[in-house]
Amino acid sequence: MTKESILIVDDEEDILELVKYNLEKEGYKTLSAFTGEDALKLATDIQPDLIVLDLMLPGMDGLEVTQILRKDGLTAHIPIVMLTAKGEESDIVRGLELGANDYMSKPFSPRELVARIRAILRRIPSQSDTVKSSDDRGYTIVAYTNSGEMIIDHGRHIVKIADNPVDLTYSEFELLVFLSTKKGWVFTRSQIMDAIHGDNYAVTERSVDVIVAGLRKKLGAFANAIETVRGVGYRFKDDNRD
Fold it and tell me: Are 62 and 51 in contact (CB under 8 A)?
């Protein structure tokens, strides 16, 4: 049985071929791009199941590609695994905050890359797994205040407050979905990072605080819906009425 399709983006032909060979050996279909511009076109036209994306591309780099993909409704849902030669935490954190699901630093083990891709594809939930209840517009209503309601459409990667769209990064959106579908439950920073990006990558838990701070700024009247539990982590409050 044919497995999922994966877009590989790297300007180094030997690395691209190495990744392609190992993925095809596991039964995945592959597409290739050497530039960010070509990657965007393929991702929009074909909408692969996952993208392996090098950060250091000529012209438009991988971070810019990630940002554009996450803002496009056609590609916002596609998982991204970053490849980076720098190994600098600032680049990794920036990529994850923009919406990448995982990363690997060059040189890397092809077997580990395939294992991580397999794990990410297994984790992708169907819309019915994440949407618990919805109104007649197809949205999930997650909270109310006197000034309106906050609604989430996970499949379309949309958040609206009082009918106004909220522009969230991938990480902010996934954190909001994760907490709001488990109202009242307290999660540690480590649990939140695992839920958003999966385990087995060395990003500090401090990055959760950065994501939460950015999310709260964008939620306006709903900022206090995400409550800090000192010494533990965060939770989505059960009752968010003013």
Answer: no
